[in-house]
């Protein structure tokens, strides 16, 4: 018997007024797996992420995490807590999502109070130290306010905060997009290492195929709210079947990069040939 996927999404749809942002999206992530959603700006990636984590309700379709349905808003604080142990999200800008008055220790302690209510102060302190170690923050950094830390260090706190709830799935919504290349590489290594050590699954939202290549097993490509291509990440990147995916791949900026005619056609709404 095959194991139940940790996350399954079927027929997902979201409308905003007259705009269909997401239309008939299906995918699943096996336990410990890592799936990327790629696509140009406005293709519906973040709307899918927000529906999975529960920030936005689907117009239609189902979302199941750890075998439990989460397609409709949670009806109680207990249900919200339970869902928080299934799926967490890390956004692009940790500065906006971290409380500027709290150091990492306080931020993590707050999550532990919520999700490990039976633990005493000492157990929580030990767990906070463990989480700091896991994301590579030293004692000084754990006691500093967010504004005294670098972007990479702040993003490590955001990752530790997501891990504190011991979720089965972490959504990484452009989580390394704002970091410079060197720090981005360090955080990507860290994420790969965490997956190996904890068995957590990732749903990675990214427009950067270089990032996708490094930490995902499978990729789906979205265009105008629909999935147009899917497969193992290495195959999708090496042998894209859709012209759109080819254009996405070929337009990854590098030294001396100039937009191709196909990319210009795409951004102007025409079908690339
Ligand atoms: N709250 C909202 N109200 C109205 N329209 C929305 C809302 N959120 C998203 N949309 C629309 O839904 C579509 C998909 O947006 P979404 O943010 O999911 O795309 P994306 O692929 O994540 O883009 P980006 O990479 O730029 O973040 C867009 O046309 C967007 O304008």
TrEMBL record:
One of the Pfam families matching this protein, by short name: ABC_tran
One MF annotation (Gene Ontology) recorded for this entry: ATP binding
Domain ABC transporter: 7-249
SMART domains xref list: AAA
Keyword ATP-binding assigned: yes
A single BP term in Gene Ontology: transmembrane transport
UniProt KW keywords: ATP-binding, Nucleotide-binding, Transport
Keyword ATP-binding: yes
Family label: Belongs to the ABC transporter superfamily.
PANTHER family assigned: D,D-DIPEPTIDE TRANSPORT ATP-BINDING PROTEIN DDPF-RELATED, TRANSPORT ATP-BINDING PROTEIN
Record's protein name: ABC transporter ATP-binding protein
Organism: Streptomyces spongiae
Upper lineage: Bacteria, Bacillati, Actinomycetota, Actinomycetes, Kitasatosporales
